[in-house]
Design goal:
The complex is a heterodimer of chains A (380) and B (441). In chain A, 46% of the residues lie in helices and 13% in strands. With 380 residues, chain A is α+β, with helices and mostly antiparallel strands. A three-stranded antiparallel β-sheet of chain A has the order 1-2-3. The two termini of chain A are 27 Å apart. Chain B is mainly α and 441 residues long. Chain B folds into three domains: 65 residues, no CATH class; 263 residues, no CATH class; 91 residues, no CATH class. In chain B, helix 4 runs antiparallel to helix 5. The longest helix of chain B is centred in the C-terminal third of the chain and has 37 residues. The interface between A and B is large, with 45 and 38 residues.
Chain lengths: 380, 441
């Protein structure tokens, strides 16, 4: 009974329910499915014996839209996929098209791109931490996290005028020169931020309830993680040291020193620790990057009308949620022939079923939270 | 005439309680939102009235005017009646609680037993409401509720028994009297008992971190999911009334009821001036903020709140300055008793809120394990420890200062043992469950 949303084969519509079983429909309007995810749970009492994700409630046809827009025109659309990390989306797209064109952004642009993308990673992880804690019942961390995220959004606003869907980069480099106090703002934020992460840790890391709710919950073994193709912090918490920033450096990551935190058990607690450490590492990258922003132009030579030679390219970056890949086919015109996007959220979400089996309903929200999905990206 | 006299004051008091309780509950909600805002670097409600002071009234009006929805497949009669059960039982429990030495509806000789019995009936409201809604979320919420309340009622009851042993009476007034006679509030004599009651009362009122039945992020709103408008407001009222009830029980049993701190120490009699001074301080704050309010109406309202506080300060101060022996001076016990009682209830509820905004939520099975494997055994040991202390004192004439700490030490050792045992038990369990359900299903 395997269908494409449920490779495990537990099609809930057609299975006969046991005497003690009920089917609970969670979402698409539910406080903690992070948007419009719908999960059908087959419950034995409160224990999950099967599940099925229903997605597509936020489908906007982003990939199809690309076929009717010029390369530059499509760039703002990718911001609307993972709207919590718009800058990262933009970076992936711009670099993919640059690769297709055979062009390269100048060093100054690459460094500024790195700074903004790392800030975006911190912002995305902060938002994840706040909502994840809220799902598990801790109300307060959300507001502390949003307070810090606000500082990052202010930097974005100063840089390009937008806070959420920024469209910060252009194909070939940057449209805007960095504003005068960018380094100072980033430095101020980074100095404050270290103490703040310690504060979150004080609230949660050693908290008995938090540990009880996250340790041993939603375990994804190393083999299972690789088999499911999950990426990003979810993969690293399962013990695989894989980070595209190190493995296939892009932007200016090869110039900076940072480490890749990994977990051991692949449970929700490890994913929490990995993301916290990633925020610290991102801060470290930002501090290194602002020390030396090379002078020079911010836009490479790409011309006004983009007509990439016929061909195809796959380029992926380490977005906050995992590997964000763009596969672009050009037929030599001003519009892409086909754009295929590999969204990390969708692939990570596929592991949900095997992660929640045998756990309780309360753990389902914890696991959905720990996967850090954004439905705009899952559905595109 | 003489036949009805004994009923006049109780009926009057009952009317006051029924009339004021919704308002008080509304303002506890406002206090909760303000406390939450303070802890979360925000301001909280600021729009309706100065500093949001009229927010509860606006909320009440909104709830009353909302459309009344009964789901199609619901059991209409039960759906209609369930919130009434909740709210009635919650309010009935207040009848036996002494708010100050004079303000009490009925001083029953079985006071505490009555309160416990009546408030356990409240669970029917929850279970029936969840069942009658005919919705999965409501049903799961109601089931969780039933299990949780039954488990924690046990340990709460046992914690109360500890204090009852010390007081030697079930009458709520007698319990406070006992604390007044010895000069020691029972929280100092039986600290572990107080701790058990604190935890169990949070669980009983479905407050975080034990708010399983209405866990917002899991079950939407638990047994209240299908309720709206006035019926929902009744559940809400019942929940907050229950909070007041458990806080009142804790105040009466452990925190000395209406007694001032160190009521028997003459050197500290200046503490009597604290209540009026506190009121004056609040009034001063109101007057200072008055010119900063944006509109004239709000300025007037803020000033009026300040004047009200001054009046209250006057009422609290009057017995202190009146000549000794006059009627006013003898009303001191009643007026100041009510102040201290409400003050302690407020402080207890504040601790509830504080915990709610600090801790994540327990999972259901963890909650049950905590209840049955830690709190229930501990509360039994606590009763035995206090019993031992009292026996040593009464039979062998040990001084109280030696025997009761010994009993408490015994309880503390038991607590440490139970904690370490729970720790050992917890970790293998995770692996066990993993084997049961292989990852590749």
């Amino acid at each position: 009974m395997a269908d494409r949303y449920n490779p495990a084969g537990a099609n809930l519509e057609t299975t006969v329910l046991g005497a003690d079983e009920i089917i609970l429909n969670m979402g698409p309007q539910h406080p903690s499915t992070h948007g419009v995810l719908r999960v059908k749970l087959r419950l034995d009492g409160e224990k999950v014996v099967g599940s099925e994700c229903v997605i597509g409630y936020l489908h906007r046809g982003v990939e199809k839209i690309a076929e009717h827009r010029s390369y530059q025109q499509f760039a703002p659309y990718v911001d609307r996929m993972d709207y919590v990390a718009a800058v990262s989306n933009g970076l992936g797209y711009c670099e993919a098209v640059e690769k297709l064109l055979g062009a390269e952004a100048p060093p100054r642009a690459r460094v500024i791109r790195t700074i903004l993308t790392e800030l975006q990673r911190i912002a995305s992880h902060l938002f994840w931490l706040g909502t994840h804690a809220l799902d598990i019942g801790a109300l307060t961390p959300l507001f502390y996290c949003l307070r810090e995220r606000e500082e990052i959004l202010k930097i974005f606003e100063k840089y390009c005028g937008a806070r959420l869907t920024t469209h910060a980069f252009r194909i070939g480099g940057l449209q805007y020169e960095a504003y005068d106090e960018l380094e100072k703002d980033v430095e101020r934020f980074c100095k404050e931020f270290d103490k703040r992460v310690d504060e979150y840790e004080a609230l949660l890391t050693e908290n008995r309830i938090w540990v009880g709710r996250t340790k041993g919950i939603g375990i994804l073994t190393t083999e299972a993680a690789i088999a499911m193709g999950v990426t990003g912090p979810v993969l690293r918490a399962s013990g695989v040291q894989w980070d595209i920033r190190k493995a296939m450096p892009y932007a200016a990551y090869d110039q900076y020193e940072f480490s890749i935190p990994t977990g051991k058990n692949g449970d929700t607690y490890d994913r929490y620790l990995v993301r916290l450490e990633e925020m610290r590492q991102s801060r470290k990258i930002c501090l290194q990057a602002i020390e030396n922003i090379p002078p020079g132009p911010i836009m490479g030579k790409v011309g006004k009308v983009l007509k990439p030679p016929p061909g195809e390219v796959y380029h992926s970056i380490e977005a906050p949620k995992g590997e964000l890949g763009y596969y672009i086919v050009s037929d030599g015109t001003t519009q892409p022939y086909r754009v295929r996007i590999r969204p990390p959220s969708l692939i990570n979400l596929e592991a949900l079923d095997q992660m929640i089996r045998g756990h309780l309903v309360a753990d389902v929200v914890a696991v959905i939270g720990t996967l850090d999905i954004v439905l705009g990206e899952v559905d595109r | 005439m003489n036949a009805i006299m004994p009923y006049v004051f109780p009926v009057l008091f009952a009317l006051v309680i029924v009339a004021l309780l919704p308002l008080v509950a509304g303002y506890i909600v406002l206090m909760e939102r303000k406390v939450m805002a303070d802890m979360q670097v925000r301001l909280g409600p600021m729009r309706v009235g100065p500093h949001g002071l009229l927010q509860p009234i606006a909320d009440a009006v909104k709830l009353l005017l909302k459309e009344d929805i009964i789901p199609e497949n619901a059991d209409r009669l039960v759906f209609w009646g369930a919130p009434l059960i909740s709210v009635t039982t919650a309010m009935l429990a207040l009848a036996a609680l002494p708010i100050g030495p004079f303000f009490q509806i009925a001083d029953l000789n079985i006071g505490l037993l009555f309160i416990l019995g009546i408030s356990s009936l409240g669970i029917f409201g929850t279970v029936l409401g969840g069942w009658a809604s005919n919705s999965h979320y409501s049903l799961l919420g109601a089931l969780r509720s039933a299990a949780q309340l039954v488990s924690y009622e046990t340990s709460a009851g046992m914690a109360i028994v500890g204090a009852l042993l010390l007081a030697g009476t079930l009458s709520t007034r007698g319990i406070v009297q006992a604390q007044s006679d010895t000069g020691w509030w029972f929280i100092f004599v039986a600290p572990v008992g107080f701790f058990i009651y604190l935890v169990a009362s949070i669980a009983e009122t479905n407050r975080a971190p034990f708010d399983m039945p209405e866990a917002e992020s899991e079950l939407v709103a638990g047994y209240m999911t299908e309720y709206s408008g006035f019926r929902w407001a009744l559940y809400f009222l019942a929940e907050y009334t229950n909070m007041i009830v458990v806080a009142s029980i804790a105040t009466t049993l452990f925190l000395g009821g209406w007694l001032r701190p160190f009521a028997n120490t003459r050197a500290l009699n200046f503490l009597d001036y604290l209540p009026p001074l506190l009121m004056v301080w609040v009034a001063g704050y109101c007057f200072r903020r008055t010119p900063k309010q944006p509109v004239a109406v709000q300025k007037m309202f803020m000033a009026a709140v300040g004047v009200l506080c001054i009046v209250l300060a006057g009422v609290l101060a009057m017995p202190l300055v009146a000549p000794a022996g006059s009627l006013l001076a003898s009303s001191k016990a009643g007026i100041h008793g009510a102040f201290w009682f409400l003050f302690k209830v407020g402080a207890y509820i504040y601790v509830f809120m504080w915990l709610r905004f600090t801790f994540p939520r327990y999972r259901f099975d963890q909650l049950m394990r905590l209840g049955w494997q830690f709190l229930v055994p501990l509360s039994i040991v606590n009763v035995m420890g206090i019993g031992l202390g009292l026996a040593l004192h009464r039979q062998l004439n040990w001084p109280n200062g030696l025997s009761l700490p010994l009993g408490n030490a015994l309880t503390a050792v038991a607590a440490a043992y139970l904690l370490s045992a729970a720790e050992k038990h917890e970790h293998p369990r995770v692996g066990e469950e993993e084997e049961e359900t292989p990852v590749h299903a």
